[in-house]
Amino acid sequence: MRDNKTSQAANEYDDNVHKTIPRYHLFHEETLDIVKAVVPKPQTWLDTGCGTGTLILKALACFGTMKIVAADPSESMLEIAREKLMNYDITYNQVSSEALCGVGIFDVVTAIMVHHYLDKELRKQATENCYNMLKQDGIYITFETIKPNTQSGTQIGLQRWRAAQLRNGKSAESVDKHISRYGSELLPITVEEHIHTIKQAGFTTAEILWVSGLQAGFYGIK
Ligand SMILES: C[S@@+](CC[C@H](N)C(=O)[O-])C[C@H]1O[C@@H](n2cnc3c(N)ncnc32)[C@H](O)[C@@H]1O
């Protein structure tokens, strides 16, 4: 059973995510790169919506051992993350971002392709929770599917996203099914709304990290 809000079952996620999300690998590369610039030696990292644990594995390779919390509401995603990270001492938490609670002990909080499933109120709550989990000067990084500013921009973006998935070998039927989630199961907001949400949560720095097509990354510094 699919319990993760993506279009794939947990055990199919790693093999298929690249076909569905163009430039997916760049989200992790850009995340590690901005962390290097802002917190060169992170000691504590929370990855909310950690999925199958791929970013955590890359963060450990990049920064070495640190205290890591892997959070995700999906039991099946966490199960795969546990297997992938079996050689590391990781704390697992089956919880969604909007229900996260705790004090600010983290240098880094990441939410990669996670909060676009939430409506505005829950996304606001999720972003505030990420802010609260950070230490002063800590960094929050989020990547999401975004909403262009115009109807025609949205149509062009969806047309390009559809073509990219077909080029990646997905069937027309599965691509159409995936694209039909935009605006119903996927609830994107504009770049401006992202910056506003990050500032509203209390971050003193709120910036665009990366944009291509219908996906973008943002960061906030507490
Ligand atoms: C597209 S996957 C991204 C996984 C991972 N961050 C990555 O970079 O591959 C989305 C993940 O977000 C999780 N998720 C869905 N809703 C969530 C929420 N409200 N809070 C936290 N995680 C959520 C899903 O279970 C899934 O593991």
Tell me what the structure shows.
- With about 220 residues, the chain is an alpha/beta fold.
- It has a single domain, classed as Rossmann fold.
- Helices cover about 45% and strands about 20% of the residues.
- The protein has helices at about 10-20, 25-40, 55-65, 75-85, 120-135, 150-165, 170-180, 190-200; strands at about 45-50, 65-70, 90-95, 105-110, 135-145, 205-210, 215-220.
- A seven-stranded mixed β-sheet has the order 3-2-1-4-5-7-6, sandwiched between helices.
- α5 (about 120-135) links the parallel β4 and β5 (about 135-145).
- α6 runs antiparallel to α7 (about 170-180).
- The longest helix has 17 residues, at about 150-165.
- It is globular.
- The termini are far apart.
- The mean pLDDT is about 95.
- It binds S-adenosylmethionine (SAM).
- S-adenosylmethionine (SAM) binds near residues 49, 74 and 112.
Topology:
Blueprint: H1 10-20, H2 24-38, E1 44-48, H3 54-63, E2 67-71, H4 75-84, E3 90-93, E4 106-112, H5 120-133, E5 134-145, H6 151-167, H7 172-179, H8 191-200, E6 205-212, E7 215-221
Parallel strand pairs: 1-2, 1-4, 2-3, 4-5
Antiparallel strand pairs: 5-7, 6-7
Helix pairs in contact: 6-7
The structure holds S-adenosylmethionine.
